[in-house]
Design goal:
Layout (H helix, E strand, L loop, with lengths): L10 H8 L7 H5 L15 H13 L4 H14 L21 H16 L5 H24 L8 H15 L3 H38 L11 H24 L6 H26 L2 H15 L1 H16 L15 H22 L4 H11 L8
Length: 367
């Protein structure tokens, strides 16, 4: 979830930042270069390139769709699904940001405004959004748009970002404050795509498709896997080989195919959770999902403490291949903390506060 960015008053830099997803993945804590769409010169090795490639192939452009879909499905179901855990945070290895939360707050208002939409209409609208976004990226690619017109300037900006993140609290906070204006431009990319996933999730929840297990949907889920994996992975491969969001042509392909790969992920998870072993795994993951917002914000805090100068100061010194390991360790820690918390309390701390404000009441906290 890309966010920290030094303020650079160049139009070129603003255009580059506008196409990033308003998310803050661990690699953007670990180095300031990725936000400028260039590789950190200190980490240009094959393990680093391989780690970046795998993230682009399997996770980037997919997991925020998964989060959006699962959130809308859960919120529109009259009862929670029994086939698996509650939706978890958008990316098991991600940390949040104000812009990302703002995006989802705004989309939540949109979803509330159209909550009476018919499921069929919601799915059609989602498809139209995806096609329009892909067409926009394709047109930009055909027009010869270049997101990194000056590599030297991008490298200098990356160095400045890394130095800012490696500074003290004032430097890190200033970095975030200065980046706020360009975060609005990021909503133009992720916002509509997240909305499309919200709409599909709304339709799924409205039909209670996941409320009673997968028994009567097993064939459909299997078909989704058979189509979603080959088509989705092919598009993801084009996206990854093209350099991720740097390549607009690959981005256009990924926008069209990422929903299919995300759907295949969902189908596989549901099928796994329906097995005896999966049924034992679901309760392990469920606590983290039931306090997803608290964990989401907690990931940001841990990212700051681990990587930036506020804490250990590892920004710029952590090899990209090691970043996913750190991210997995953070998520494992949060699984255990969530289990212990929910053994004593009904809600996560942030979920409790949000419920209190939304319902204008003091909900019970202790079990």
């Amino acid at each position: 979830m890309a966010h920290s960015h030094p303020v650079i008053g160049r139009r070129r830099a603003a255009r580059v930042r506008a196409v990033r997803h308003p998310r803050r993945e661990p690699r953007f804590f670990a180095s300031g270069y990725p936000f400028h769409l260039v590789v950190d010169p200190a980490h240009g090795s094959w393990p680093a390139d391989s780690a970046e490639f795998v993230v682009r192939l399997l996770f980037e452009m997919k997991f925020y769709l998964l989060f959006s879909f699962s959130s809308a499905t859960a919120s529109s179901c009259s009862r929670p699904p029994r086939s698996g855990p509650a939706p978890t945070s958008p990316h098991g290895s991600s940390a949040g940001s104000a812009a990302f939360l703002t995006t989802y707050a705004l989309l939540g208002l949109v979803l509330l405004a159209v909550h009476r939409i018919r499921p069929r209409t919601a799915v059609i609208a989602a498809g139209v959004i995806v096609v329009v976004m892909a067409a926009g990226a394709a047109v930009a690619a055909l027009a010869g748009a270049d997101l990194v017109a000056d590599r030297g300037a991008a490298l200098a900006d990356g160095r400045a970002s890394t130095d800012a993140l490696d500074g003290g609290p004032g430097s890190v906070i200033g970095e975030h404050v200065r980046s706020l204006p360009v975060m609005a431009g990021s909503l133009a990319v992720q916002g509509p795509l997240a909305l499309s996933a919200f709409l599909v999730g709304l339709a799924t929840g409205r039909h209670q498709l996941l409320a009673d297990g997968i028994g009567r949907h097993a064939v459909a889920l299997r078909r989704l896997e058979l189509v979603g994996y080959p088509v989705g992975l092919t598009g993801a491969l084009v996206f990854a080989v093209g350099g991720g969001t740097v390549g607009l042509a690959g981005l256009a392909v990924c926008i069209l195919t990422a929903p299919l790969l995300t759907g295949a992920y969902v189908a596989t998870l549901l099928r796994v959770f329906a097995t005896p072993r999966g049924a034992r795994l679901a309760p392990v993951l469920a606590p983290a999902g039931r306090m997803a917002l608290s964990n989401y914000l907690g990931q940001s805090l841990l990212g700051v403490l681990i990587f930036t100068g506020v804490g250990l100061g590892l920004t710029g010194d952590t090899p990209p291949a090691l970043v996913p390991v750190v991210a997995a360790a953070i998520f494992a820690l949060q699984l255990e903390l969530s289990r212990r918390w929910l053994a004593r309390y009904r809600h996560g701390p942030v979920e409790w506060a949000l419920r209190a404000v939304t319902n204008a009441e003091r909900p019970p906290m202790r079990r």
